[in-house]
Design a protein that fits this description.
Layout lengths: L11 E5 L3 E5 L3 E7 L2 H5 L5 H13 L5 E8 L3 E8 L1 E3 L2 E2 L2 H20 L11 E5 L2 H17 L12 E3 L14
Antiparallel strand pairs: 1-2, 3-5, 3-8, 4-5, 4-9, 6-7
Helix pairs in contact: 2-3
Length: 177
């Protein structure tokens, strides 16, 4: 066994669009993605649309990832989640899960708006959470996001918020992928 701090194993995947994306098996990620500028010109996400996004994220909860906490803001989304193992030593890829989330929510929201086109930016920001301090910091940031934006007086009551231990929204297990 090495004592090299950069030798993190064979399960590291690095990809890049505009931003670098690292995926390491059994890691937790702090993820942020945003509305495309064309979509935000047609309006921010309504409470009903935020519910669609939340349901799309939670559809894969306990199937492809464990969602720890999330908030869907009017123009962006924050998620703290850990992908599950697809098979021993292989985890569901974050880009695969997010592609499904974005595709489903985009289809439903565009249909409700009577429009076509891109809803989400193709890029995302993500960070491997390295320790308990970073995890707690990300969770507190997500919890306080709606409060900081003036969208809620109690962040636990914000319609776009969900965390482990809360009931899943009605119908989440029934929606198609």
């Amino acid at each position: 066994m090495h004592n090299d701090p950069w030798d993190i194993g064979e399960d590291l995947t690095i990809s890049r669009r505009n931003l670098p994306h690292w995926q390491v098996g059994a890691s937790t990620y702090f993820i942020d993605f945003r509305l495309h500028s064309d979509a935000s010109r047609t309006g921010m996400l309504s409470p009903q649309e935020r519910a669609i996004v939340k349901e799309a994220i939670l559809f894969w909860h306990a199937r492809k990832w464990t969602v720890h906490i999330l908030t869907v803001m009017p123009d962006h989304v924050h998620i703290l989640a850990t992908p599950l193992q697809r098979r021993p030593g292989k985890w569901f890829p974050v880009p695969e899960i997010l592609h499904s989330v974005k595709r489903r929510s985009s289809r439903e929201i565009n249909k409700a708006r009577g429009r076509e086109g891109t809803l989400w930016q193709s890029e995302r920001w993500d960070r491997v959470v390295r320790n308990e301090r970073e995890y707690d910091g990300a969770a507190l940031y997500i919890l306080g996001n709606a409060l900081k934006a003036g969208l809620a007086k109690d962040p636990w009551e914000y319609d776009g918020f969900w965390c482990e231990g809360q009931d899943l929204p009605a119908g989440v297990g029934d929606c198609p992928p």
